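User: quick one, fold this
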Amino acid sequence: MSQIRVNNLTFCYEGSFDNIFEDVSFSVDTNWKLGFIGRNGKGKTTFLNLLLGKYEYEGSIQASVVFDYFPYPVTERQRSLPAAEFLEEWKAGCELWRVLCELEELRQDAEVLYRPFQTLSPGERTKIMLAVLFSGENDFLLIDEPTNHLDQKSRENVKQYLASKKGFILVSHDRELLDACIDHVLVLNRQSIEVQSGNFSSWWENKSRKDQFAVGENEKHLKEIGKLRKSVARTGQWADKSEQTKIGFYRKAAVNEHERAVGMRAYIGSKTKKMQSRVKQMEKRINREIEEKEGLLVDLEQPVDLKIMPMEHYKRVLVKVEDYSVRYEGAKEPVFSGVTFSVEKGERVVLHGENGCGKSTLLKMILKKTGGWTEGEPGWKDSRMKIGEIKADKTETMEAKAGETKAEKMRVCETGICQTASGLVVSYVSQDTSMLKGGISRFCMERGLDESLFCAILRQLDMERVQFAKNMEEYSEGQKKKILLAASLMTPAHLYVWDEPLNYIDVFSRMQIEKLLEEYQPTMLFVEHDARFREKVATRVVEL
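Assistant:
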């Protein structure tokens, strides 16, 4: 057991005009199960890369352990090979029998090691990488958001697996995962960094109490300053009046002529000087009070309430799906079959199922119908037994961070009924963020968005103004997702279709969005694997 000591750490990216870290100091134990919490863009992944020695920095990081990082990069060559053939390229000295033991703990069949890596599901890829990561000895492991794009079953497996391990830093915005797996938290606050014992829920409870106390103290502080300012103003007025009587300008105070005598002037001048001295002392006290309380609320999280502009449709049922199946042309098995559900006004319907069961495909087919043709029942856009094209999203899996994504058009054959109300306006949030390029001005111009309002919503989602001058390619994945969410919130729509909107989104923004949807209750059809979000937001679950 040893410690990782960070002393006076300062770092910024080359060419950037804002520091990610500035004079930061703390220490953590290598035996801890440490959860890393913070807003998007605060530098969580950057800090892990600093531990790995990828960047130069000021200050010092002292550690006597070897660091290893999840997720491993996957090259184009490796994608076509079974994982068993390139394990040592990920982790030097990796032994296959140890990986097999770890896979057994993850409840994953060993045969996944012998299938081409590109054919594996996101859950299978994650489990292989975690098995390799934990196959070493005495390493301190840096785990960066392992549950993004994983279905509920895979999340449960990963959660139980990590709960049995120790000696790692876990970056995650999944509250269920953090509560189950960690015994300490490392938190990037607005202006400070803190290390605390406990899991996410215990930290959040302590933070809420601390914030409540800070707000109470600040209110008392403001009241005291208000009283002092009134006293300063009142005493200043008295001093001015007294000064005017000395030279006979203030007639009400100088009723008698003898009050203008030379002797009285000296007396009045002395009294005025004392009053003015008292004013200066009170002003000093106000400034001292302000200095003492300065920084009281710097770490206070006060999320601004978001707004959404749902439109009212004349029909009660906006989407109707009956005995619906989709099969890619040339495939033997359908992506899904026999699906039946509807979406009515005011409902928030979540599609739930394992990776690969066709949730995203179903959302795209419904989106396609909103631009289709009228057929069958009046007021509906209908699709029966048709063949069309669908453009697949770029696969957001472990290698997505390395830019190794693939999009292709695939012809699909549909059977059954998939209908959407005519004139339906849809606001869509995709899993894929790779299309975000250039600056915010260009993005708003292409989408017909009011740039000032768009930036205001991003500020409400806690994106710093300094980010607005950057190209979106430089954003973190969480910041890119906030771009898509802000655009959706700005778009008036009858139906909001969101495909895993919370991937990479920080905990505080998730809570903001939960509150927004509970308050405005827009009609929604969405996919999301965050169990707490589903419980709070969804009115109905459709299992695929």
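User: anything notable?
Assistant: The chain has a mean pLDDT of 82.
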